[in-house]
Amino acid sequence: MIRKASLMLVGALMGAAAVITLSQTEFVIGSKAEAAASDTYRQLNLFGDVFERIRADYVEVPDDHKLIEAAINGMLSSLDPHSSYMSPKSFRDMQVQTRGEFGGLGIEVTMEDGFVKVVTPIDDTPAYRAGVMAGDVITELDGEPVQGLTLNEAVEKMRGPVKTDINITVRRKGVEDPLKITITRDIIRIRSVRWHEEKDIGYVRITQFNEQTFDGLQDAINDIEKKVPEKELKGFVVDLRNNPGGLLDQAIAVSDTFLDRGEIVSTRGRNADESQRYNARSGDMTHGKPVIVLVNGGSASASEIVAGALQDHRRATIVGTRSFGKGSVQTIIPLGPNGAIRLTTARYYTPSGTSIQAKGITPDIEVKQELPDELKGKVETRGEASLRGHLGSDDGTEKTGSQAYVPKDPKDDKQLNFAYELLRGLQANKAFPPDPAAGVPN
Known about the structure:
alpha+beta; Pdz3 Domain; 2-enoyl-CoA Hydratase, Chain A, domain 1; 6-stranded antiparallel beta sheet; 11 helices; 19 strands; globular; Tail-specific_protease
């Protein structure tokens, strides 16, 4: 209405006839819009005044680019915790993460005592073929000492264009002298899906939703079904614990893998015409085999889309603890050479029309982990509702997050072992197997 009135007021300058068509209310609205615009420009002038005062009087010469970036980021971060500005480098890093592949060496690393320590070389990668071993400590990269670099800085140096060389120096336990290894960079694909057969059960772990995730899930199911005879396969455990999310289209594709029909998720923006619905295509890749999905307080966003879709359609039983509760959609808007902004543009809703924003997915069967003595009282239970400035839920009710601890040893993993026992019939619960007839109508 404000936009319409403003346009009509502009038209009024062109002829008296246009003035007659405007009501008193429309004039008032138009003047309010003009006043609001005038106030906005005054605020922008204030920003310019402060910026110039900082440039002129700050104790040291400030970096103009950093000042502007900080101002933009402050504006975005004031909206909610997931809207932000990305510098050109941050934007490139985000693209690498979501693409799931980059030019690099193929090693998982951590920082230890100021040096980069190899957690494991990834099979069939340049580092693996060059003889890098788990436990190796990298002390130099192309002759430059690693000590003093952050882990991100060291990783950035190891990544680079395909077919280029890097010389690394490593110290290896049991070897007296440092080893110098030349590695030729190649395309490295981030494995967001790992799997194995647990005798008569297929275990699939999804760590994030990048461009490789759906393909990885297909490979996992095909491999498990080849190794476990169809008559012996009890079902699948899909582990989404501590999965922070990722790409919406991959969450939809993963959900579609287990569904034969029906809505997967819908998104609703500020304007009604921006709503979108995403539906499953015919064909369940697992042929209706039982599915248990594991979630916890670290399962967020895309993970919650998958859990919510399979739960609402009664296609899977959700086991674990309440998920994180991030029910908003972020759009990445590139700004040319100036990076990009990540802007929250919609809420998403499960097939039953439920928003999980600041509430999370409640599991069908709650199973809490046993915390070791050294962690008792030290592990926080956080969720979206605990984030400062978070987007509120659509109905005003909010729920806290839950524990996100997962034991390193599968033998101590109560949630995982409970899922195995359910599939093997060693545990009984009214929520398993779920009744498809009680789900969302398809």
